[in-house]
Predict the 3D structure of the following.
Amino acid sequence: MATFSTVEPELSLTELSSRLDLSPSTTYRLLMTLQNAGYVEHNSQSGRYSLGVACLDLGSVFMSQLDLRDRVLPVLETLREDCKETIHLAVLDRKKMEVIYLEKLEGLLPIGMMGSRVGGRAPAHCTGLGKCLLAYLPDAEVREFYSVNGMRSYTDNTITDTGQLLFQLAKIRERGYAVDDVEHEPDVKCLAAPVWNHRQVVVASISISGPEQRMNHLMTEGGLVDRLQVTAHEASRRMGHPV
């Protein structure tokens, strides 16, 4: 879709095939798939193709995510300064049950390798951010997805049983936060809490991540859960939720 531009909003099959370095038959099949999904439109008079209205929906989603990040970034920065650990903001891709990182504020203390990055993805079933977002989906949707797709194991602590995951999601709704207990990356523990919008829908989650030993100390001695929930409440207020 990046082949189209304001200078050339319409392109022929031949032009698209040449620019994509694909055969005309392959290009046509791709265009048909995109057209059926609404991402491409075909002008029957000129025989040329242009972007479809579904691209507007994608743009709206993207802009709403930018708005979310901009609104809550100040409270994320305050939380990072307060706890000194790595802070994340993420949303959920429901089709793949993966989190997408919108923001990552590096911790101010030493830490080993952490694979998260802005724009990157991680599985929902074994991350604090992901489990926090899964908790506010219908149980039937979660059960159906993982019954079909399974749950990959990343560490000895990764949940791989759908029933166990659903039990944990119920606990998350009850207490208001999720824990990644070294379930995705070795020696990385994570706490996450939901961000609600003005429609009282969970639209994102915020997490604090760090080495297991430091996180355990902060949870028992440093009031880390309370600090996270205060931040999530303020982020939700900034998104219009009546907290």
Summary: The chain has eight helices and eight strands. The first strand starts at residue 40 and ends at 42.
